[in-house]
Amino acid sequence: MPPKRSKPVDSSDPNSSGCRSANKRLRLDATVLSEKSKNSLLRSSAAPTEPQHKRDALEGDGVSSSFSDFLSGPGSPVESDFDKLQPLVVAALERLPNAQDHPDLRKIGRLKTSEDISKLLSAHGWWTPSLIEMFAESTVVTISLLSSTGSLNPSLLLEGFFRQGKFAHLSSLCITGTPLSHQDLAHLRLLPSLAILNLVSTSLSTIHLLHLVTHAANLRDLNISSNPLITDDARVPLSALTALTSLHLRGTSITIPCLRLLVYAIPSTCRFITLPQGCLYYLNTRSRRYCMDIPVGYVQDPREVPNMTLSSLKRNLELHKGANGDIAIGGTKAEAVERLMRVLCGRVADGKIARRVGRGEPNPDI
């Protein structure tokens, strides 16, 4: 008996098992393709259209030049804060009457850091409130408003610094030649790194200095020269500035009695870079106040005075009377102790002041 032949599969027959399997596979493939197409469309609609040279760079076509253009192009993820700041500054200056036609305006495009731009703005007095706000997130270290406050209310400039967590790197600020109010100084309280502050000729009084106590841990160099309303009471806020290394006091109303107390209160490394003229005159004429070179056998340390006899007290007072005829010798022991203590304590303090004048070099005037 001849073997049975298997019936050929008729693909046109929808009831055949082969046809059913093929149709099932086709439906699955269509579903997968449909899903892929859908996802591709979603991705293409979500992604922003990129210039052809960026797409070429990503696909490896002209990588060396096009990829560099891609990284430095507008909206690039690696665009620095300085790249954003530079055109904003130029645009602002182009609207500023005293800057828009200035030849130095072109220099800004060639500058490399925010510090360089700050120096240019400071040199020409181009700072405005809006420009100060632009630098709030920058790495600028030094700002000088010396030439910018002439035509502007300083309050408008300084209030831009009163921003929490901004100007993190600003360590040197110069504001001179314009009157400042209490509120103006208060605007500087939030500067976290302020170390050098120049406030020459700003009509400051002693009370203004209370705002500087917030910078006690950082403030190293303070210039309050040419502010005659600053008096001996300034010893209190100045004593709180525990990081001071340089203090400028020329043109204030601070006197020798204040300096004698202040020299013990401020850090031992702090120098009096300048002093009021009256204080300098006093230090230069100390030889008329008491005996400068005390010989052996006489007391130099004020702490020894209370234990001295009356005769020894008078002997030491006579030594100093030789330099200053106004020193009295007679009286009770208590009066003699008080007079000699005053002379010796003043002599020791004056010596400390004299050694701190200037930057550490010998001072020929003292």
Give an account of the 3D structure.
By secondary structure, the protein is mainly alpha-helical. The chain has 2 domains: 81-284, Leucine-rich repeat, LRR (right-handed beta-alpha superhelix) (Alpha-Beta Horseshoe), CATH 3.80.10.10; 287-356, Transcription Termination Factor Rho, Rna-binding Domain, Chain A, Domain 1 (Orthogonal Bundle). Helix content is 40%, strand content 5%. It contains 13 helices and 6 strands. Strands 1-2-3-4-5-6 form a 6-stranded parallel sheet. Helix 2 packs across helix 3, helix 10 packs across helix 13 and helix 12 (310-321) crosses helix 13. The longest helix is centred in the first third of the chain and has 30 residues, at 17-46.
The CATH homologous superfamily of the largest domain: Ribonuclease Inhibitor
Order of neighbouring strands in the sheet with most strands: 1-2-3-4-5-6
For this entry, what is the oligomeric state of its chains? single chain
CATH architectural label of the largest domain: Alpha-Beta Horseshoe
Helix and strand content put the structural class at: mainly alpha
* Spatial shape: elongated
The CATH topology of the largest domain: Leucine-rich repeat, LRR (right-handed beta-alpha superhelix)
Summarize the amount of helix as a percent range.
Answer: 25-40%
Outline the low-pLDDT stretches: 40-78, 360-366
Helix-strand sequence: HHHHHHEHEHEEHEHEHHH
**Radius of gyration, in angstroms, nearest whole number:** 39 Å
Strand content: 5-15%
Number of structural units classed as domains: 2
Largest sheet: 6 strands, parallel
The residue-averaged pLDDT reads 83
How far apart the termini lie comes to 140 Å
Count of individual helical segments: 13
